[in-house]
Amino acid sequence: MSITAIDPRSALVVIDLQQGIVANPAAHAVTDIVARAAELAAAFRAKGLPVVLVNVAGGAPGRAEQTFRLDNLPAGWTELVPELGRQPSDITVTKHTWGAFTGTGLEATLRKLNITQIVLAGIATSIGVESTARFASELGLNVALAIDAMTDRSPQAHEHSVTRIFPRLGETGTTREIIALLESGAG
C-alpha cells in the first residue's frame, strides 16, 4: 500500500549507514541513499520525533552456509556516516543480528516513547531493513518504508523486498512523500 499517513508518534530508524557498509558495492548510488536518509533524519528532528541510528558490529551465532564474518573489523568500520548529522538526541543502537530489535533494547525504548510507527531507511534492503520491518510488524507497529532511501548489494533482492515483501508489512513511499506527510501533519 502506498504511504497514506505518518503517525504523530513515529520514529525514523536508519539501518547500517556506517563506514564499512557504505563502502561496499550496491544496486543504487550509496551517496543518494545516504543523502535521502539524512533528509529524513533532518525532517524528523525538525518535528521533534525520534531518530534511531543503527549500526552492526557482529553476527548472530550459529552455522550457516553463507556467513559474513565480522571478526577483526578495521578501525572505523562501525562508525555511522557523518552525513547523517548525528545529534545528541538521536538514539543509537548497535546490533549483532540482521534486525535492529533482537537483543538491542530498541523495542523497550520505542514503547517508552509511545511510538506507534517506524519509518525505515538504510542498507541492505533484503537483510537489515527487511528483518527490522518484519519484527516491527510482528510487534504491532505501523511500518513505513522509504524505498528510495534504501539499497541492497543485489538489485534482484532489493526489488523482491520492495515489491513482494514490504507491501505485506506496511506502506511504502518515497522520501519526498514521507516528508510531505510529516510536514503536513497528515496522520
Automatic annotation (TrEMBL):
Q: Which CDD domains match?
A: cysteine_hydrolases
Q: Which UniProt keywords apply?
A: Hydrolase
Q: Does the keyword Hydrolase apply?
A: yes
Which stretches make up the Isochorismatase-like domain?
10-176
Task: Supply the InterPro entries for this chain.
Answer: Isochorismatase-like_dom (IPR000868), Isochorismatase-like_hydrls (IPR050272), Isochorismatase-like_sf (IPR036380)
Note the SUPFAM superfamilies from the entry: Isochorismatase-like hydrolases
**Molecular function terms, GO-annotated:** hydrolase activity
> Which Gene3D superfamilies does the entry mention?
Isochorismatase-like
PANTHER family given for it?
ISOCHORISMATASE FAMILY PROTEIN YECD, PEROXYUREIDOACRYLATE/UREIDOACRYLATE AMIDOHYDROLASE-RELATED
Q: What protein does this entry describe? A: Isochorismatase family protein
